[in-house]
Amino acid sequence: MKNALPKICYWCGMKLTDETNNREHVPPNGFFPKGYREKLITVPSCQEHNNKFSLLDERFQIYIKGLGTNLVAIDDFKDRVVRGLNREQNKFLVASLSEKSFYVDIDGEQRLVMEIDHGHSQTFIEKIIRGIYFYHKEIPAEGIVQSFSPLFQSPNINTEELADFLLDDLSPEFMIEGDYSNPDVFKYRYQEVHNVFVLVMNFYKGAEFIGWILPNNYTSVNA
User: Fold this and answer.
1) What is the pTM of this model?
2) Is the peptide bond prior to 27 cis by the omega test (within 30 degrees of 0)?
3) Among 71, 74, 157, 203, which is 20 to 30 Å from 5 by CA?
């Protein structure tokens, strides 16, 4: 894990001092249960970009752990997530989640499904993409940040087909394994081609997201 990163905010590039330097976990610390907190990635952050997305972080650990893709996610959902939702200060969050939850029949079983705001999903994953980019490049990302997941449907896009297409196109021999220490919670791999930074992230061995950063001057001719 890197310890000597530049003292500037990973998102906005603001210069930081020892007093103003906050540490942003990538992904957020709340995703890591006890026993899975070794050598977590952190990047320097200004106060605004350290605190701005706290509610979004809380929502998305509920969404992603709720998928139950491995025992780590299931156990932590039943333990910390449920205890957190029972707190008085989270009653509005619970009400909001309830409004966007419904049951569907999947292979004869009734399963709880949560409707996820596409814009919120993009913002949450953008935060992680920017954090990992800064961790490796040591400069804030400039350009267009985009992402999607085959698990979360996007308007007018067949995300499963798009994921298969992109993953087939990403040459395994050029993908670099990320600097992670808790693969049961989070792992990633990345590559940079024609100034496009591509990132494949996996939460709890099943919730996969694909993201990229396009340069501001990027056109299809660059591809």
Assistant:
1) 0.84
2) yes
3) 203
